[in-house]
């Protein structure tokens, strides 16, 4: 099973990092194909807790080749901070490969991200403020800076000058900020060039060679289906393709090489930032889920909004990504609830919907229709086989499988590497 794509099936933070980590040394390379340091993956290994942002989670497994693909936007200061932090903790980062075509986040992208949000006021997106949107905007606008530009000082200066021409007008005249000089940007970016050079290659070519040699490559998505620029709740989305198609465009791997597409979903659902969220719980129950699940952002520390599992979103994620498997995480967090509601339909202005509504306006007005399932009180964190789970927990998983239209191949019962119930092997089954 050589090429396997792993994506978020909800609004992010489903436990993708842990799911990647669980596959460990059974994969030879882990590729990040979209987003940047807006991602936050917490991986727990025994007493050690790691928070990864720009580096793929596979870096924690010795021997795995971590790859940052062309679809990623790289903030070089963050890249080296993260490498230094991990190296100091004994993690080997020497095998990291970085695409020459990945775009760079420059300091002015961060500035523009933050001031834009401030000016949007109530219409803000609630971004992570990392400069992700402005860096992708420059890419699409064809005024972006790429990793390879760091190795040609003249070209770099020309490109920075071009990018700053309009940016400075905006910063000074609209946002009342100081103009940024070409030299300050070029000097900062060039200071990373020598350290970056040994990692840079044609990552698409390297990945094709690995696949040709029969190696197993995991494409690890950042963000999630409902945050995808095309398929998510636009404009309350991130600026990249977080769905399975993004794994191909963001890495240079053709679609016909992909063998398996794994979605990751929590046994309930969360969202950080603004935007519609039909099953959101704004009461004490929501607060209880936030506490029980430790639902605070890995990147920004913001409290995550919480709600019940939404089967329409799961079905949508299954369809848009072509999911072959679902990893259901955080089932343990639901322990102790007498009844567990699951959203099986929406009502919009008196009309029942069993698919995601056509328009954002309708999605904003969607009122969830719930089916309730029996809860359980037993501690399930030690379960390793499906049969170890109490009958009600098994029934809940089987109900979600049926409602989501995709087989649930693994169930998370705690944050640690080994706290997982595997029903179908993600690489072999
Ligand atoms: P990611 O962005 O998709 O990688 O997810 P995050 O790391 O942002 O958030 C998931 C959180 O849930 C992390 O703190 C994980 O350690 C934790 N986690 C993952 N799987 C499980 C699970 O099955 N049970 C519990 N209790 N925590 C989990
Ligand atoms: P992982 O990979 C959850 C959200 C932000 C905001 C919107 C746009 O850990 O699942 P951006 O900074 O990307 O322009 O913000 O997207 N967002 C995430 N939410 N998990 C993430 O990543 C996210 N990355 C971005 O909160 O609503
Ligand atoms: Mg996260």
TrEMBL record:
Pathway: Purine metabolism; AMP biosynthesis via de novo pathway; AMP from IMP: step 1/2. Its cofactor is Mg(2+). PROSITE patterns: ADENYLOSUCCIN_SYN_1, ADENYLOSUCCIN_SYN_2. The keyword Membrane does not apply. One of its GO terms (cellular component) is cytoplasm. It is found in: Cytoplasm. It is an enzyme of class 6 (ligase). IMP binds at residues 13-16, 38-41, 128, 142, 223, 238, 302. It holds the Pfam family Adenylsucc_synt. This is Adenylosuccinate synthetase.
């Amino acid at each position: 099973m050589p090429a396997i794509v792993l994506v978020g099936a909800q609004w992010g933070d489903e436990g993708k990092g842990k799911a990647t980590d669980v596959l460990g040394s059974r994969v030879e390379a882990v590729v990040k194909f979209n987003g940047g340091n807006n991602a936050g993956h917490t991986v727990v290994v025994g007493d050690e807790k790691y928070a990864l942002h720009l580096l793929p989670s596979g870096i924690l497994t010795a021997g795995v080749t971590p790859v940052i693909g062309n679809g990623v936007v790289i903030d070089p200061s963050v890249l080296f901070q993260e490498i230094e932090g991990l190296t100091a903790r004994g993690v080997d980062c020497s095998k990291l490969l970085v695409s020459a075509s990945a775009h760079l986040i420059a300091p002015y992208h961060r500035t523009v991200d933050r001031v834009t949000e401030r000016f949007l006021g109530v219409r803000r997106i609630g971004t992570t403020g990392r400069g992700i949107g402005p860096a992708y905007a420059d890419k699409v606008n064809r005024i972006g800076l790429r990793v390879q530009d760091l190795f040609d000082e003249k070209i770099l200066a020309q490109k920075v000058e071009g990018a700053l021409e309009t940016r400075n007008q905006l910063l000074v005249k609209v946002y009342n900020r100081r103009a940024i000089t070409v030299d300050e940007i070029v000097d900062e970016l060039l200071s990373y060039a020598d350290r970056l050079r040994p990692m840079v290659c044609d990552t698409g070519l390297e990945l094709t060679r690995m696949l040709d040699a029969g190696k197993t490559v995991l494409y690890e998505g950042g963000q999630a289906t409902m945050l995808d620029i095309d398929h998510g709740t636009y404009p309350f989305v991130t600026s990249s393709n977080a769905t399975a198609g993004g794994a191909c465009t963001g890495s240079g791997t053709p679609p016909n090489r992909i063998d398996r597409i794994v979605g990751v979903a929590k046994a309930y659902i969360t969202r950080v930032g603004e935007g519609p969220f039909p099953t959101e719980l704004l009461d004490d129950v929501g607060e209880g889920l936030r506490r029980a699940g430790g639902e605070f952002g890995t990147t920004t520390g913001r409290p995550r909004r919480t709600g019940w599992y939404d089967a329409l979103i799961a079905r949508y994620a299954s369809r848009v990504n072509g999911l072959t498997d679902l990893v259901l995480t955080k089932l343990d967090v639901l322990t102790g609830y007498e009844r567990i509601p699951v959203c099986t339909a929406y009502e919009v202005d008196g009309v029942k919907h069993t698919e995601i509504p056509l328009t954002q306006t309708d999605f904003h007005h969607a009122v969830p229709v719930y089916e309730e399932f029996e809860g359980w009180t037993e501690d399930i964190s030690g379960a390793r086989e499906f049969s170890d789970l109490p009958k009600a927990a098994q029934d809940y998983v089987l109900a979600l499988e049926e409602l989501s239209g995709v087989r649930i191949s693994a169930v998370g019962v705690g944050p640690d590497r080994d706290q997982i119930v595997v029903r179908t092997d993600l690489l072999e089954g």
